[in-house]
From TrEMBL:
<keyword id="KW-0808">Transferase</keyword>
<dbReference type="InterPro" id="IPR051199">
    <property type="entry name" value="LPS_LOS_Heptosyltrfase"/>
</dbReference>
<dbReference type="GO" id="GO:0009244">
    <property type="term" value="P:lipopolysaccharide core region biosynthetic process"/>
</dbReference>
<dbReference type="InterPro" id="IPR002201">
    <property type="entry name" value="Glyco_trans_9"/>
</dbReference>
<keyword id="KW-0328">Glycosyltransferase</keyword>
<dbReference type="GO" id="GO:0005829">
    <property type="term" value="C:cytosol"/>
</dbReference>
<dbReference type="Pfam" id="PF01075">
    <property type="entry name" value="Glyco_transf_9"/>
</dbReference>
<dbReference type="GO" id="GO:0008713">
    <property type="term" value="F:ADP-heptose-lipopolysaccharide heptosyltransferase activity"/>
</dbReference>
<protein>
    <recommendedName>
        <fullName>Glycosyl transferase, family 9</fullName>
    </recommendedName>
</protein>
Length: 317
């Protein structure tokens, strides 16, 4: 109680999150924006991915859990949990509440964003209907990145055909489907990002493993005309830098979970009765109905007929 009052007096808020969910921690930047615009609070951030909060004018201090000795980190996490209150919060849906995030979302059928879901138990009231992640680059950083990636095409699209299957396999659309999209427009510069050990599409510029940091990846996304991806980190990154995102949504969760102003959802309509399922294990149905009806030809049509964004020219594949 005393700690939270002191933080309030100094116009500070401690926001923390530990773990490997990269996209979730990028979404913390949306909370930071809201805390400052709505409450004039600057943030002290503890996270596993501090690079997302670099150069952010609304961040007072930025600490990395990964750089801390494990013993000290565990003590700090325990203290933060004990001290949670009006001005200290963990950006993570409590596992002990309502059976955890997936169980809560499945039972409630809530159509809220990931940002709203992870902060719904905050004691500080936030207005998050239009909340969007935000990454800030310094001029020096942009100059370094521009030199390093000077060979990027003037216009290109980013494609990442594989998602984070260690969380759930149910977001996947299928590598072969992505390949059919690429084959429909082989002369357009497609750039494939991702891990170096992921399958490589034909007729793409191989950028797997070429970025040395998440900030470099964000810069590449900011330079792209658009991205084509599964729901996940790349869609959040696109929103954080204002790049158009053609995002394939399965029936794992509702579109509202990450439907930003920059997001153009590609989703089966209507969804099957089992959607949203929020199943972490493999889909038990005879066929994965929520994605098998999304055809590559339809994806191409969505991309080529999409309205312009921020005065960007039309996409001609």
């Amino acid at each position: 109680m005393i700690i939270n009052r002191l933080l309030q007096f100094f116009h500070l808020f401690i926001l923390y999150r530990f773990g490997s969910a990269i996209g979730d921690q990028l979404c913390m930047t949306a909370i930071i924006e809201n805390l400052f615009t709505e409450h004039r609070l600057k943030s002290v951030v503890f996270s596993s991915y501090p690079e997302f909060f670099e150069n952010n004018p609304n961040v007072c201090k930025n600490y990395s859990f990964k750089r801390m000795p494990k013993f000290f980190r565990n003590i700090l996490l325990s203290l933060l949990r004990i001290a949670e209150g009006e001005n200290i919060a963990n950006f993570c849906f409590p596992k002990k509440k309502d059976g955890g995030l997936e169980c809560f979302m499945r039972k409630s059928k809530a159509k809220i964003s990931l940002i709203e879901a992870h902060s719904c138990y905050f004691k500080k009231k936030l207005i998050l209907l239009q909340a969007t992640p935000k990454i800030y680059f310094s001029d020096e950083e942009l100059a370094v990145f521009s030199r390093k990636f000077s060979d990027l095409p003037d216009r290109f699209g980013i494609v990442q055909p594989v998602g984070k299957t260690t969380y759930t396999p149910n977001k996947e659309w299928g590598f072969a489907n992505f390949q059919k999209v690429i084959d429909s427009a082989p002369h357009f510069p497609w750039l494939q990002t991702g891990m170096i050990n992921e399958l490589l599409l034909d007729h793409v510029i191989d950028f797997r493993g070429k970025t040395e940091s998440l900030r470099e990846l964000a810069y590449i996304v900011s330079r792209a005309d658009f991205i084509l991806c599964l729901e996940g980190l790349l869609n959040h990154l696109a929103a954080s830098v204002g790049t158009r995102s053609f995002c394939l949504f399965s029936g794992f969760h509702p579109v509202e979970i990450a439907n930003y102003a920059t997001t153009i959802p590609v989703v089966l309509d209507p969804q099957p009765d089992c959607s949203p399922c929020w199943r972490l294990e493999k889909c038990p149905q005879k066929s994965k109905y929520c994605t098998e009806g999304i055809l590559p030809e339809q994806v191409i049509k969505v991309i080529t007929t999409a309205p312009s964004l921020n005065n960007q020219p039309a996409i001609k594949l």
